[in-house]
Amino acid sequence: MSATMIIAGKEVRDAFRNRWVLGATLLLAGLAFVLAFLGSAPTGALDVKPLAVTVVSLASLTIFLVPLIALLLAFDAIVGDVERGTMLLLLTYPVTKTNVVVGKFLGHSAVLAFATVVGYGGAGLAISLGQGADGQSGQAFAWLLASSVLLGMVFLAVAYLISVLVRERGTAAGLAVGVWLFFVVLYDMGLLGLLVAAQDRVGAGVFPYLLLANPTDVYRVFNLTAFENVRTFSGLAGLSGTVSFSPAVLLTVLVAWIVLPLAVAAAVFGRREL
Amino acid sequence: MSEGAIDLQALTKRYGAHAAVSEVSMRVPEGSCLALLGHNGAGKTTLMKLMLGLTRASAGSIAVLGADPGSAGLDFRRRIGFLPENVAFHEEISGLETLRFYARLKKEPLEVCGVLLERVGLTHAAERRVKTYSKGMRQRLGLAQALIGRPRLLLLDEPTTGLDPVLRQEFFRIIQELEAAGATVVLSSHILTELEARTDLIAIMKRGRLVVLGDLDTLRREADLPVRIRVTVSGETAVIAERLGDLVRKRSGEHSLELTCALPDKMAVLGRITALGRAVADIDIELPSLDDVYLRFGHDPEDVS
Fold it and tell me: The complex's ipTM?
């Protein structure tokens, strides 16, 4: 077994041991079930909504929750171990610093994938069994799961970048919260403000590209526009007319959002002396 | 003993303007035990980090087991064991799991873990979480992980802190076994007395510089500290004092004189005292203690600790 996989395996075991996995899975499952079954409560009806509707509401939930879970899971992955002193010992073993960063990242990714697939998948399965689902909705749901994992990995990678850049856990925690606020809340507000302020002075063609600069928007556009029956529920039918990125392009952008921060994190950590 | 396990030439490590290690040159033969001594901040830990390749030298050269640790491959690390100062482990997993993780990284069979735990006396706590371990138990677990894979070089930073005297004895017994098997051991300490005569070489550092290097006798000689001799007289104290002349430092009692002399003169002085015959009832010789030697070389008046 390679050093990377040994480190990844240890990270997974640690996460199961300190109940991170349990907590994240239960949280995601609980919210997914609530959305699936009680989503129509305001209308007075209590029943399972169609899978396609669930995709829309779950996607919105994911944008808030999964980046937060990912950032909290990994912000101290490097700086915490350096502070505790365990990193010093680890690096005297036959491992490279890239082994450490990539191994821990893969371990955390596995944890997040487990929580997402089990948490959301359970709700999806319950809806399909209770209501039945057409093939396209099932496909949309499967892509929701996959892209949610990717979104989580994006923010894990960003958390690793934070973790190698700072010297103290507290700073990393603060930065992680800041990053979450920026991408999840402030960026879209800023974009909206810009859109209003710019009126027609700035070419409308610029805005779709600004969406690509925020991984949560990429995720949103991917899930709300990729499938016809989801689009009709999402109210983004208009948007999809102007945003003309194919799902493949959007997924590629998400993957780039994973690879780049992680590569920079590995490079920065590699040059650091303990 | 021909090959040098560690070879340092004018090794310097600067952090900004501060030189943590400054022009240190030494050669440690394979299979020997070197004790690094010095006040806090003398550069002991930095020197070890340089030997491990965790930091790179600012100037000078370093060779450990025939390789430059800064650029050596992963195979180099497999031949080294390290016990950091204040060793830390992940708290939630057991001692045995901890060792198994490290054994996997060194690609050693997992069976060694049980054996090593036995050796450091932790078998009874193998399945317990590290969280529940005392300081001494953590230190022993730290030693166990350093021993994985029969390293050719062991670097132990303050290894005996938190160990009670019995464990300390046991610890030095393990070190001696390793040395007998041909491993080179480097350990650091700020207490000289606990090392007693267990090390072949002692290096005393002070503010990043190597002050003195040698075996205990060399250090004693170079320290040039006086030998204290106490003479109990049976005759007239004043008469005896006069006959010993300038050797006498003080009369410490009715029938007792305190003398000092340089180490090389010791036998000559003893000859003069015994020549006094029956006037001398007893002689007490006190060689300079290890603490005296250490204070002579390593004491840093600015070191508040």
Answer: 0.84
